[in-house]
């Protein structure tokens, strides 16, 4: 997502359309749910603003379907870790005080 952000920033600068960046802010949180939502948002914005071709011209091939799949994978991974009792890879949830 950061590559999309930086590429759109370059396009915004070249075309003198800084408002393009309003829809391509990279989230500062690290939660999978937040990243999944932003991934879907990027896909929708790229399609609505007709930026997919401009990205491809800069050797960054992105599709809305690919971003949707990334969101699904993130959410599936979150659910899978929750079932195993982990909030993030390598971190166990505590139950009660020790």
Structure, explained:
A two-stranded antiparallel ribbon has the order 1-2. It has one domain (2-82). The protein is mainly alpha-helical and 98 residues long. Helix content is 57%, strand content 5%. The chain has helices at 2-14, 32-48, 52-57, 64-83, and strands at 86-88, 91-92. It is built from four helices and two strands; from the N terminus they run H-H-H-H-E-E. The longest helix is centred in the last third of the chain and has 20 residues, at 64-83. The model is unreliable at 90-98 (pLDDT under 50).
Based on the model shown, name its key terms.
98 residues; mainly alpha; two-stranded antiparallel sheet; 2 strands; 57% helix; 5% strand; disordered C terminus
Fold topology:
Blueprint: H1 2-14, H2 32-48, H3 52-57, H4 64-83, E1 86-88, E2 91-92
Antiparallel strand pairs: 1-2
Helix pairs in contact: 2-4
Task: Indicate the percent of residues in helices.
Answer: 55-70%
Gap between N and C termini:
39 Å
Low-confidence stretches: 90-98
Q: What number of domains?
A: 1
What fraction strand? 5-15%
Mean pLDDT figure: 83
From the helix content, strand content and strand pairing, which structural class follows? mainly alpha
Oligomer: single chain
User: Element order, helices and strands?
Assistant: HHHHEE
- Strands in their spatial order, largest beta sheet: 1-2
Give the count of helical stretches. Answer: 4
Largest sheet: 2 strands, antiparallel
Instruction: Assign an overall shape.
Output: globular
| Structure summary, number of beta strands | 2
Cα-atom radius of gyration: 17 Å
